[in-house]
Specification:
InterPro entries: Epimerase_deHydtase, NAD(P)-bd_dom_sf, NAD(P)-dependent_oxidoreduct. This is SDR family oxidoreductase. The chain has 282 residues and is of the alpha/beta class. It is built from 9 helices and 15 strands. Helix 1 crosses helix 6, helix 5 packs across helix 7 and helix 7 packs parallel to helix 9.
Length: 282
């Protein structure tokens, strides 16, 4: 596979992990981030705020990139924070890409664009009609990219967990489990599979394999959140002391079939595999 020039817009946990993996595959990788904290070598850091065109214009390299991966994280969980990160930021980046003609742009989105709440099976072809601000903003960003003049692929992740993303473990360790009344069907994916999935799609595109315009990024086993929390309590040796409502992403079974059909093999195909690895390294 020939060496490609790649820019990752948003080098937090996911972007940095992906950049390292792509660098190890021989690619030249630039990483855009707001923080002045150094990126691990050999990633080339670009310090700037993509939501501010003046800041972005002052730091964006003039060179053309083969691949652009937009995986920014909102600075706050609010409509304003989401619009700044995913709409304004993406608009600014797309302006900087004018006349550059990247081979493909990848946008990390969310399954929050799906509003289903009755346990329906959701695939990439399922209609999206988000009612909450998070999904609505994400969908608007996806539509911005769809209207752009270069090939683009959206990856909709759900429930990312892994090292440093152990919120559910902490809740269960404190004695909380999901209540019977709330108990939504939850979807999740380990951070290492997020990285692996994105790297897999980039590799396919490098090899000239056709990509779809959208993939759902979840593991192979959607599960009721109560089941997940009770399983965690058992693994932790914790006696549940309080049942609480959990989940804010509806209740749906997101299908991983399209990404499986592309040839991707999950390192952690179920929540049990992923959380067991986390607990063993705790």
């Amino acid at each position: 596979m020939h060496r490609k020039s790649i820019i990752i817009v948003g080098c937090g946990d996911l972007g940095t992990r992906l950049g390292i993996q792509l660098s190890e595959l021989g690619h030249e990788v630039y990483g855009v981030r707001r923080s002045k904290h150094a990126l691990p070598e050999p990633l080339k850091a670009i310090i700037g705020d993509v939501s501010c065109m003046t800041s972005l214009a002052s730091c964006w390299p003039e060179k053309a990139f083969d691949y652009v991966i937009y995986c920014l994280a909102a600075s706050e969980y609010s409509e304003e924070g989401y619009k700044s990160a995913y709409v304004t930021g993406l608009q600014n980046v797309l302006k900087k890409l004018q006349d550059k003609h990247p081979k493909r742009v990848f946008f990390v989105s969310s399954t929050s664009v799906y509003e289903q709440s009755e346990g329906e099976i959701v695939s990439e072809s399922t209609p999206v009609e988000p009612q909450r601000f998070a999904g609505a903003v994400m969908l608007k960003a996806e539509q911005l990219l769809e209207a752009a003049s270069y090939p683009a692929t959206v990856v909709r992740f759900a429930g990312i967990y892994g090292p440093g993303r152990e919120r559910l473990i902490k809740k269960v360790r404190a004695g909380d489990v999901c209540s019977k009344d709330s108990n939504p069907i939850s979807n999740r994916i380990h951070i290492e599979d997020c990285v692996g999935l994105l790297a897999h799609l980039i590799k396919l595109d490098c090899m000239g394999q056709p990509l779809k315009d959208c993939y759902i990024g979840v593991d192979n086993e959607p599960a009721p959140l109560r089941e997940v929390t009770l399983w965690l309590a058992k693994q932790l040796g914790v006696r549940p002391v309080k049942e609480v409502p959990m989940g804010r992403g509806g209740s749906k079974k997101c299908s991983s079939q399209r990404i499986i059909n592309s040839g991707y093999q999950f390192k952690y195909p179920s929540y049990r595999d992923g959380y067991q690895a986390l607990l063993e390294n705790d």
